[in-house]
Each structure stands twice: as C-alpha cells, then as structure tokens.
Amino acid sequence: MNLISNCCIAGYLYQQLNEEFKNPFQWCFISPSDLIFLIRNYKKINFSKTNFSISKEHKNSVICDVDSRIRLKYIHYIYDKDITFKQSNHNIKSNRIIEYSANKYKERLKRMSEKPVFLYVDKIHQSYTGDSLDFIKTETEYKKILITDDKDLLKYNSNKLLVILDTGARQTDNNRPFDYANKYGKKILEFVKKS
C-alpha cells in the first residue's frame, strides 16, 4: 500500500496495520495545490531531488522541497525519541532535525514502488480552504479518497474515488487525522485494497 495524504492520517493508518511507511509523505502537511500537482505529475517528479530547511514560520518544523515543485512540511520529527537531546543550542538542534528528516525521507523513498492512492482531508488546517472539488476533478489513473463535510460531494463516489462524509469539527482540532484513521480506517483500507 502506497498511501499519500495531505495530513498525518496515512501515518496513523500504516501504524494500525503495523506496516513500514511505503513513501516519504508521512507525518507532513501537503497543501491542496501541491497535492493536486503531485497527483497530476506523479510519474514525472524526481523524488530524489530534495532540499531541506527549517520552517521560517515554525522553528520546530522541517520543510522539504521535492524537485522544486512540491513542498512538504514535517511537523512531528521534533518529538521523535531519536531526535531528542539535551543541548539547547538552536543551530545544533536545527541541523540535527534536518539531517534526521532527510534520512527518513530517503529511507522511505526506497520503499515507494507501488501505485499511489491519494487521500485528501479537506479543511484540515486553517490555511487549507477545502479545494475538494479540484481534488475530485483531477484526472488520474490512481485511486483517490476524500474526507469532507460537504454532503453534495457524495455523488462523486465511484470505484476510483471514495468520498467519506464527516460533519465533525474542522480547523480547531489537531487530533482530527488520528480520529479519522480510527473512525474510517477500515473503510479506507478496504477501498485501497479493492482492485
């Protein structure tokens, strides 16, 4: 399973299955426009061409520019037990987080061989306004999954697109990806595995 999501839900689903991550797009945010670009250009992107840096907005987040086209924002690595250490020097910490993030990316990239399935949770972050229709209408050979609070989008369900309606709170709850994985994990995984 090569599940790529715009938020951390895919990471939680891999954990439920007790599987290794099959791509480097785990524990990060991907903007709607970058996710759509990724879907449209998946076969053309040079995933080995990366540049890592510390986010200017959030000092504990790592930015990864992939092929100068897609921006990933890793927000969880600062909390990994492998990266935590006692020094308080910000430059040492920043360099260590960048190196750690780059190593995780490369390690997971080596496992990325299966066809991807793209999962988009709309309105997951305040800066993501919910480009659900663009996601739905992006033509691709790959399967897509949408979690949305817009019931009008249910009509787009098909054998290549799973639309899940969730009317819970949006934008204010950082645990939503975890909750979605628990609530809809079985349905998502059945759709992913169905040929």
Could you characterize what this model shows?
By secondary structure, the protein is an alpha/beta fold. 32% of the residues lie in helices and 20% in strands. It contains 5 helices and 8 strands, in the order βαβαβββαβαββα. The longest helix has 20 residues, at 90-109. The mean pLDDT is 86.
Mean of pLDDT? 86
What's the arrangement of strands in the largest beta sheet? 1-6-7-8
Shape field: globular
How many angstroms does the end-to-end distance come to? 12 Å
Number of helices: 5
Low-confidence stretches: none
Helix share bin: 25-40%
Biggest pleated-sheet summary: 4 strands, parallel
Structural class based on helices, strands and sheet pairing: alpha/beta
SSE string, helix = H, strand = E? EHEHEEEHEHEEH
- Care to count the β-strands? 8
> What oligomeric assembly is this protein in?
single chain
Give the radius of gyration.
Answer: 17 Å
% residues in beta strands: 15-25%
Quickly list its features.
195 residues; alpha/beta; 4-stranded parallel β-sheet; 4-stranded antiparallel β-sheet; globular
Helices and strands, with pairings:
Elements: E1 2-5, H1 9-17, E2 28-30, H2 32-41, E3 50-54, E4 62-66, E5 70-74, H3 90-109, E6 116-121, H4 132-137, E7 143-148, E8 161-165, H5 176-193
Parallel strand pairs: 1-6, 6-7, 7-8
Antiparallel strand pairs: 2-5, 3-4, 4-5
Helix pairs in contact: 1-5
In short:
The protein has 195 residues and is α/β, with parallel strands linked by helices. The chain has five helices and eight strands, in the order βαβαβββαβαββα.
